[in-house]
Amino acid sequence: MQPIRNFRVIKKTCVSPDLCRVILEPADGERVFVFQAGQFIMLQALSKGDQAKRARAFSIASAPCESSLKLELGVKAQGEISSGLHGAELGDMYGVQGPYGTFVLKKDSSGTVFFAGGVGVTPIRSQIRESLLTGLNQNLVLFYSGSYLTDLMYHAEFSELSAKYPNFKYIPILTRESPAGWHGESGRLNEQQCSKYINNFADYDYAMCGPQPYMDEVRNILLSQGVDLAGKLRFERY
After folding, report:
1. Residue 238: which residues within 8 A CB-CB, separation 6 or more?
2. What is the dihedral of CA 80, 83, 89, 92, to 10 degrees?
3. Cα Rg of the chain, angstroms
4. How large is the average pLDDT for residues 190-196?
């Protein structure tokens, strides 16, 4: 079993009433544990007596290549622990255990299409940043869906990365309401949208994370295009 280390909140940025980006650092001043892009931690809220409460899994949003002293988490306020972390103050302490998980960056792939629904983007952000920042030269495509623009926690960042890296294509999708001047896609993810940006489905590996109905739709789209799901698709539920 992985040891539990105390981490403190050093920065929190709220992007909507229920979404925020939280940065943690080890309370002991040591380096963050070694992890792979896409892995998750178990996080425990600590009481005043430092007794650990029930733990919850959170995917690491930051990339290993940039996280020797801190971790970033993308948090949606739903449930006791995530709501507490969303409302955390600077200096609040949490027990962290990990890393865990096999939903990690496939470094030997020439290209990957990522599908992210809502806060399911967090492990995918880690993988995309790791690939781009370490110069793996993979062809990457990201379909990122949310109900409203405020639900796309990393929209501005992905837009900047796609402008900087020609091998990264970013397709934001708003399923309910699109603001004036919106240049992304609208409506639920569908086969027509995917075919618009993927020339040959056989050229890519695939990875997805999001609500179960969203991932079911991704599976149906890939199956309709003849993709070998057993060999080409990685996924993680949240």
Report:
1. 57, 59, 119, 120, 209, 210, 211
2. 30
3. 18
4. 96
111-237, CATH topology level: Rossmann fold (3.40.50)
For the beta carbon of residue 168, count every other beta carbon within 10 angstroms.
18
Given a cut of 80, is residue 88 above it in pLDDT? yes
β-sheet bridge partners, residue 12: 22
Q: The tokens 């096999």 sit on which residue?
A: 102
Architecture of the 5-100 domain:
Beta Barrel (2.40)
Give the C-alpha separation, 36 to 58, whole Å: 14
d(CA 73, CA 121): 11
Cis peptide before 99 (omega within 30 of 0): yes
Q: Is 121 helix (H, G, I), strand (E, B) or coil?
A: helix
End-to-end CA distance of the chain: 22
- pLDDT score at 50: 46
Average pLDDT over residues 209-232: 97
What span, in angstroms and rounded, lies between the C-alpha atoms of 134 and 131? 6
Beta strands in the chain (DSSP E): 4-16, 19-26, 40-46, 52-59, 71-76, 93-100, 111-117, 139-146, 168-174, 185-186, 205-210, 233-237
The verdict on pTM exceeding 0.85 is yes
Q: Give span(s): CATH 2.40.30.10, the chain.
A: 5-100
Half-sphere exposure of 144 toward its Cβ, with a 13 Å CA cutoff? 28
